[in-house]
Write a structure and sequence with these properties.
elongated, 15 strands, alpha+beta, single chain, 8-stranded mixed beta sheet, 503 residues
Length: 503
Amino acid sequence: MFLTITTTGSTDRPATDLGFLLHKHPDKSQQFSTAHGTAHVFYPEADAERCTAALLLEVDPIALVRRGRGKGRGGAPDSALGQYVNDRPYAASSLLAVALRSVLASAMKGQCAARPELVGRALPLRIEVPVLPARGGAALVRALFEPLGWTVLAEPVPLDETFPEWGDSRYVRLVLEGERTLAEALRHLYVLLPVLDDAKHYWVAPDEVDKLLRAGEGWLEDHPEQRLIVGRYLARRWALTRRAMERLELERLAESDDVAAEELDNAVDEEADTEDKPVPLAVQRREAILAVLRAERAARVLDLGCGQGQLVGELLKEGQFTEIVGLDVSMRALHEARRRLRLDRMSERQSERVRLMQGSLAYTDSRLKGYDAAVLSEVVEHVDPARLPALEYAVFGAARPRTVVVTTPNVEYNVRWESLPAGHARHADHRFEWTREEFRQWARKVAERHGYRVTFGPVGPDDPEVGPPTQLAHFRVQGEDSKGADRVGAGRGGPVTGKEVAA
């Protein structure tokens, strides 16, 4: 898929100033990795009188299918013409919109440190999109872009030029002309390309409301097709659409009263509105782990692979946990944990509850015996597969705590992160990332070999198609009565729930 941005200029105001605004040099061709392929930025022409920048998104159809099995992520019925044959590599869609935001982020935000005076300058722009899906036809294209000051050419693409009697396809060739700042033009495209396509390739999460309002600032509040734009952009998720519409109305009222929106929206205390704010996944993980440990009534807890001590800090806040040991192979991480926890400033009584130790889970360690519970939070995926049996024996065989909690990424959920390139792990140090079934097979074999019973639960929003972002396994020594641990629940935003799966 492809689009070009062209501007004209003069000796005093050369058209090649476009390169400063795009942060891409006209003499260079650059490429960028995206979630579904490679984006190329190059300049077919660049001189003082005329400059054209092109964005070409080369979609990997195999990655598209593997990452997009299901509605709304490139696998929706309107795009799944076949496993590897569909319109996504050719027609401008949300794939191109995401590439715009990731490759031209500074330009879209109106940032240009080298030439800040260019940011607010309206340029004579011509934007061409050769193939654009338009569910609603050329009339809708004009209805969306003309109120924004664009002169619009929306030329229907025939189904087959050889057989004109077959009529037109649902695609158009789009040409926009007008004087706008580059940032405004990019924000219009970012919102309206997927609106016209009416099929997003990724999961629409609550943070999409913020993305829409940021990109729509200054024009969406008064657009005559506002409701259609908001509904389609948010994939007709009505709760999100309602929230976006309420915020847009608030902005409109604030502008008419010449006050800040926050001054009008003061009926609810700011602290009381936290339930609408997304909870970071790392926080949800800690809440889920704490829920298991509370239910198991664990008092002496090992945090194996404790890193910078975030979980240790949460455990210290609760009196139930009388002895807490953080173990990590990295002395640097332990020094940072000590600093973050302020161990040197703790009261003597508090500091007696916590101990930080250096050690490797690849070897048995007599210091780890006799504890109620052990936690391996986002640890196993950092271990080479060939060394997993050693870790397994060190924890489940030698140390053998009554309860073990293991969390690890669910690789199936990676398709939900639009910024994660296809085939890439979430972290550069991950040796692997398991599917839900792979994790369960590993955990069940570990439990069988060492006399544990294991159950599973999701951490984070449990997507009906690809599961949760993090998966949790809860091991209990066979014969131990876990008193209240049959239902595990913690935190907000869909962490571990009672929907556990027993081995």
